[in-house]
Structures are given as structure tokens and as C-alpha cells.
Design a protein that fits this description.
The chain is of the alpha/beta class and 261 residues long. The protein is built from 8 helices and 7 strands, in the order βαβαβαβαβαβαααβ. Helix content is 48%, strand content 16%. It has a 7-stranded parallel β-sheet, with helices on both faces.
Length: 261
């Protein structure tokens, strides 16, 4: 098992991506702490994990609330002994489909502000605990728009680029404490509700079907397909494991070759 005896805190674990990552981490032996604002969705993921023999605990925490984050992490350390992995996968709000010149400053900035607030708060809070034990892994997830601009994505691409910049800075500062910081960059998994919705918006703007839009995006990749949700979760498990202990300050490319490094 890649993550045996690891304690992993997953923010947004009730969502499609967070749930997939939580299941993958638990499958690889981690005890997962599922965090989010909606208990029903978190509990559904926890039941799935328990049914296959995994260990999961659920906590209702707003990942924009500094005190709530720190209180929860202190409880995790008290009961589990350490925080080995922290992965923030909460949604950032906002919708796509408009050009920047058609947006208000507030609308444009919404994703950026949300991203910087929650990623900063969860990562730095986890890092303070990880420093006490002398190791840890902080993970984030971005999209190809952080590197390659797309039409009508609003503040999404800028927010994703900001997350990657935050990861690089944290990796520099936390490296001496043996804390790794790694970002996974996806091309978007079409089997998630969020990506499906975005594809429908962009397809409507282009005057084509949702299926045609996805096919067009897939055609731009070297593998001629997009990464499925389970595939992204599997890469996350590998990067969180000790097999990747030389990787930090990096953006791991899971775009199926849409972005070529």
C-alpha cells in the first residue's frame, strides 16, 4: 500500500474530485479525514470507504475559516498523532462563459480571492503541524488554464496560476522542514459534474454539442483523450507517497499531454 499508516486531511472530500481522492488514499492504506461544509456528502464518501475496509472520519469545517481549520487540525493531531498529507479540493465558485471585458472586477476576482484564501489557510495550518513532526506533503489541484489561456474562462485561469505560484513559494519555505508541496495540473475530467457543466457552457457559446466540444479538447492532447477522475486520484496517491519523496515545488502534468513540459 502506497500510503499505509499515513493520515490524510482532504478538504472538499464530499465533491466528485475530493471523494475520488479520498477513496484512492484510503485504498492505499491512509486514514482519511474528510472535511467539508455538507455532512451528507462527506458521510456518503465515508460509507463507501468503510464498506471496503478503509478508515475515514468526517468533520464539518468551512475551509475559509481560519479558526475552524486550526481547531480541526489540532483535534486530528491529538487523536491520530500527525498530519502527513493535506489536500485542498474545495470548489472556488464563479461561472465561466464570459470574456473579461464583459465582467465586473468583483466577478473576475471571485475565484482568485477564494483560491488564495482557502489554499493559504489550509496549507499553512497543516504546515505548522507537519513541521513539528519533520515531514509532510501538501497537495493542490489546478487545470491546464494555469499555463495555457482559453477563451471565456473569466478569473479561473488566473486563480489556477496563483495557486501554482503559492505552491512554489511554500515549497521553498517548507523544504528545510522536509515538507513537500506539489501541484497536480489536470486537463479537466469530463466525468465530473463541474467539468461537464463547463463543457456545456463553452459548447453553447461555440454553437456545437457538448460531445463535440469535449472531442475537440481531447484532440488537442497527445493521448487523444482527457484524464478520468480515477486516473487523477491515482496520480495524487502516488505523489503523496514516499515513492515521490524527491518531488517538491513541482507541477505534476496529468493533462494527457495537452500541456507538453
Amino acid at each position: 500500500m502506497l500510503l499505509k499508516n499515513k493520515n490524510a486531511v482532504i478538504y472538499g472530500a464530499g465533491g466528485a474530485i475530493g471523494g475520488a481522492v479520498a477513496r484512492a488514499f484510503a485504498r492505499e492504506g491512509a486514514k482519511v479525514f474528510l472535511v467539508g461544509r455538507t455532512l451528507a456528502t462527506l458521510e456518503a464518501v465515508a460509507r463507501d470507504i468503510a464498506q471496503v475496509g478503509g478508515a475515514a472520519e468526517v468533520a464539518q469545517v468551512d475551509a475559509h475559516d481560519k479558526q475552524a481549520i486550526e481547531k480541526h487540525l489540532a483535534e486530528v493531531v491529538k487523536t491520530a498523532g500527525s498530519i502527513d498529507i493535506s489536500f485542498n479540493l474545495i470548489g472556488l465558485g464563479d461561472a465561466q462563459g464570459k470574456a473579461l471585458v464583459e465582467m465586473t472586477q468583483e466577478h473576475f476576482a471571485l475565484r482568485i480571492v477564494n483560491a488564495m484564501a482557502t489554499q493559504f489557510l489550509t496549507a499553512t495550518a497543516a504546515a505548522r503541524h507537519m513541521a513539528q513532526s519533520g515531514s509532510g506533503v501538501i497537495l493542490t489541484l489546478t487545470a491546464q488554464v494555469a499555463h495555457k489561456p482559453y477563451l471565456n474562462v473569466g478569473g479561473f485561469g488566473v486563480a489556477e496560476a496563483a495557486i501554482e505560484g503559492l505552491c512554489r513559494q511554500l515549497a521553498l519555505e517548507l523544504g528545510p522542514q522536509n515538507i513537500r508541496v506539489v501541484c497536480l495540473r489536470s486537463a479537466g475530467s469530463p466525468d465530473t459534474p463541474g467539468v461537464d457543466e463547463v463543457f456545456r457552457i463553452h459548447a453553447a457559446n461555440a454553437g456545437i454539442s457538448r460531445e463535440e466540444f469535449e472531442a475537440g479538447v481531447a484532440e488537442k492532447t497527445l493521448l487523444k483523450r482527457l484524464p478520468r477522475l480515477a486516473e487523477v486520484a491515482n496520480v495524487a496517491a502516488l505523489i503523496a507517497s514516499d515513492y515521490a519523496n524527491t518531488i517538491t515545488g513541482a507541477v505534476t502534468n496529468v493533462t494527457c499531454g495537452e500541456i507538453v513540459d
